[in-house]
């Protein structure tokens, strides 16, 4: 760094530190508010008719704030979700060039989005009304240009040395300029709309290459969307507009709040207590500890969603437990890598809620439909563990009533968690969002007050901080993915895809097989969240045309993507496991392959036995 | 001049509304010799998003429902006044009288009115039979989240509104969070809501009008002669909907009755009493939810119709 700049940086550091603190506080405060409002609503509704004024739209707009402030924080901590392909690039000059290239494209796309988002706010000032209590919706939308702008700067800053940063800075300026010309698109002023009429594919190639070089995933989806819009002479401001549309979806607040519950549980020692219980109950069986690991992981994944948090949070506890009981190393790593995504089909896991939002169906139908398929996948992994136990004779514990009773008693509050969730949801006292807030509160009480796992203030702060960053990383992808989907719908791709498929495939059974293959590929190259937002609108019409029940289609969809987590080369769990267990990626690939096969069989069963999904729904009269 | 237009709507594919839009699109293409094409395949996102996207001139045409129209201009709240209109003919008459004003307020928002749409008549569906305002006040009534004024008005008049998102209605009915809601019969049937609410009040609550609009920017680029052709096609669509949709609702009621819905018939005397109470309560909408002059104009037009 040149000397004068260093001096500026030194003097600026305290001010910057203060701003960073303020940014974190704002995000955590918004998350706290979005947890407290639904809780207050549960209490107030029976007393005051109509409940708290505007509480539902306020919570939705707070979700927008949490998501985008969190995305900004994730950019600062270099935690925006990216493909891990960049780690394959050899260190040295090649790596540096890739880093600079990825940062420049990422910064340019973010700057374009930031500038376009200002137009979105201006439109909202004209069109948008008041949420309640005199607060107008555009005020919340200010977070969009702010977050995209901050991300542009932070990505540019991370380009590398000063030369690379200068290039990224130029990228930011180009992004702003393009946004200006983009606003002329749609007005019919075709001459000022610079990209219009040109080819679209070079832009798609550019953003895909940048992602391979390590740019955050959201810049691929957003970049493809804004460039393609401009090529077709449409205003790219549609992309930040859809980010707003998605972030304020009615059921979306449930996702950050259930995730918060997961982070609070992970902050305490709940996993240890659950491990004790299941060990005491099934540790006597062959492969008992392995079964326990699958169940505990599934339990956590239900709340933390398909974010890989399970491996990060529980890996350090469960791997030593397995090794200590004499399980082979490769088996243990593979088991935990696969278990990290078990539970995604069980209520109230994030993908189920998100699928319901995108497909516009009732979340509770997916909750009920997912139970048997979810249990099937856990059972398959558990069976693999028992086989290992029998083959290797790995450690078994004697069953002791006393130990089981004590462990059950200690973990009773954690074990009651599913009852709290389902009880609140189906009692008519709380909506889905309110239930998620209640779950977070319950988690805080159990770990922070009952067990005193951590000092309440600092412990919750930590959980809030981590949750906000994760949610930000996910939500920004979802938001721009919706913009990308909207583009595809605009140019009529779902309909063309339907025609294309129907011309080639007649039988629903063959369609399902093709769907499995397609989704497996999708799962390889896309994370589960953007896959749901982007792909569900494409296949739901097709599925309906082949007479597939929408709930069944949803469960097939999520089950396939669950597999995608394990599929080399880019399955998310493989990377996380490699990082958490400190093993080479190739070793993790090898360890996971048997489980990939086993879960693949499970997915086929789920696909071809609709009863697994629909049986319970019929039983409770929902079909 | 050629125009390739896109349509935005939340109206479901393959519904009667979708059909009418397609008919209009092909009529447009025919009568302008292919100069004006309209792609009717809907857009992503809720109605608020479609309205905002029209500011970006994509889509250029939208078929909007009453909630979307009231978001653009509160004038449209006039059609949401509970128990204000007695019949389709009466409501249509008031709509025609108010059209110049409504057209102007859409124009203020950069939109050209092409035609009016009809979504049927909202009726009250409930778990317990409703015979008078008192029964209605005791019901846990679904209200759409985000309309805070409406919640306040309900509360001040002794009702029990439960603000929820539309997507939570089925859940709310299943768990008892709500036990009554307003909906056109066709909606209650296709969303399966009627299963939890076996009673329908036979007095229509309010007409669910809609509108097809085009951005002024797109309209400006269409030739004078073609504009006439577009308006003709739009008028034909309006006639079709005002004929077809009430029939669809009657069929829906018959279908639900077969499956156990009981339609609580109300005597004329009881109905006028309920309307009188409602008129008294909704008088507060004048100057608050509905601009005073529009409210007065609507009353005048309604009285004129009733006296003929
Ligand atoms: Na939305
Ligand atoms: Na919304």
Helix content of chain A: over 70%
Largest sheet of chain A, in brief, is: 2 strands, antiparallel
How many helices of chain A? The count is 28
What is the N-to-C order of secondary-structure elements of chain B (H for helix, E for strand)? EHEHEHHEHEHEHEHEEHHEHH
Shape by Cα distribution of chain B:
globular
User: Main sheet of chain B, how many strands, which sense, barrel?
Assistant: 8 strands, mixed
Most extensive interface, chain pair and sizes:
A-B, 50 and 48 residues
Bound molecules: sodium ion
**Average pLDDT score of chain A:** 88
Strand content of chain A: under 5%
Would you identify the regions of chain B where 5 or more consecutive residues have pLDDT less than 50? none
Secondary structure class of chain A reads mainly alpha
SSE order of chain A, one letter for each helix or strand: HHHEEHHHHHHHHHHHHHHHHHHHHHHHHH
Distance between the termini of chain B: 47 Å
Number of strands of chain B: 10
Strand content of chain B: 15-25%
Count of β-strands of chain A: 2
Structural write-up:
- With 623 residues, chain A is mainly alpha-helical.
- Chain A folds into 2 domains: 3-247, no CATH class; 254-620, no CATH class.
- Chain A has 28 helices and 2 strands.
- Chain A has a two-stranded antiparallel sheet with strand order 1-2.
- In chain A, strand 1 (130-132) and strand 2 (135-136) form a beta hairpin.
- The mean pLDDT of chain A is 88.
- Chain B is an alpha/beta fold and 308 residues long.
- In chain B, 49% of the residues lie in helices and 20% in strands.
- Chain B has 12 helices and 10 strands.
- In chain B, strands 1, 2, 3, 4, 7, 8, 9 and 10 form an 8-stranded mixed beta sheet that branches. Chain B has a two-stranded parallel ribbon with strand order 5-6.
- The model of chain B has no long low-confidence stretch (mean pLDDT 91).
- Classes of the chains: A mainly alpha (623), B alpha/beta (308).
- Chains A and B meet through helix 3, helix 9, helix 19 and helix 21 of A and helix 2, helix 6, strand 6 and helix 7 of B.
- The structure holds sodium ion (2 copies).
- One sodium ion (NA) binds at residues 46, 48 of chain B.
